[in-house]
Design a protein that fits this description.
The longest helix is centred in the first third of the chain and has 13 residues. The two termini are 28 Å apart. The chain has a 5-stranded parallel β-sheet, sandwiched between helices. 45% of the residues lie in helices and 14% in strands. The protein contains 9 helices and 5 strands; from the N terminus they run H-H-E-H-E-H-H-E-H-E-H-E-H-H. The chain is an alpha/beta fold.
């Protein structure tokens, strides 16, 4: 199956839309290159946006101030499971609708993988916004390197430490964290990290 057809099929399944609807959206402006109109800057914010909270709102509002067009990549359920070791509380379709309802968000796409070069190929952007808790860390350095490969930059925004989806979930459903050690690392998350390290 051609790559484009495969991508549109996956997006159709994940978003509950037909392949034709996905292609129509793709061709009519929701997905386009960042320099189509007067060299406007397209910004991209990836995230899970599970149990949408003030931290999410802060980073999206701040990102919009630094770009002309803001695209938000909402992580697929399976991608979040690979990263966190548990499925999100709020399903993908609802998370997308919540983010799309914000007036300063111009487009919402499904983010399929931790490698943001794939996101860039599906929806080219000029700058990727990330919380400054990533700045100066190995994962932040890797992200900067990967974005440089495709000609994009990483811009760090203030992280809101007072709340997070994980903190909310730990309070609402502590049984979801029964498989964690004292350091707060889930078995599945440790396995994913070990697998990733072995693959390098």
């Amino acid at each position: 199956m051609p790559v484009f057809a495969l991508i549109t099929t996956i997006l159709g399944i994940v978003c509950g839309r037909t392949v034709n609807e996905v292609i129509d959206t793709w061709q009519n402006g929701c997905v386009h290159t960042p320099h189509e109109k007067n060299d406007r800057i397209t910004g991209y914010v990836p995230g899970g946006f599970d149990m949408f909270h003030i931290g999410h709102l802060n980073v999206l509002r701040a990102a919009r101030k630094h770009c002309d067009r803001l695209v938000v990549g909402v992580a697929a359920d399976e991608s979040l499971y690979r990263m966190k070791g548990r499925m999100p509380v709020i399903p993908l379709r609802e998370r997308c609708e919540l983010v799309a309802s914000l007036r300063f968000v111009d487009a919402v796409v499904v983010d399929l993988d931790q490698d943001k070069r794939l996101a860039w190929r599906l929806q080219p952007f000029d700058v990727l916004f990330k919380g400054d808790d990533w700045k100066g860390t190995p994962k932040g350095d890797q992200l900067e390197s990967e974005m440089a490969e495709v000609g994009a930059t990483v811009f760090y925004l203030p992280y809101t430490p007072s709340t997070s989806s994980t903190k909310l979930r730990r309070f609402i459903a502590p049984e979801d964290f029964a498989d964690e050690d004292v350091d707060g690392t889930a078995d599945a998350e440790r396995g994913a990290v070990a697998h990733e390290a072995g693959a390098r």
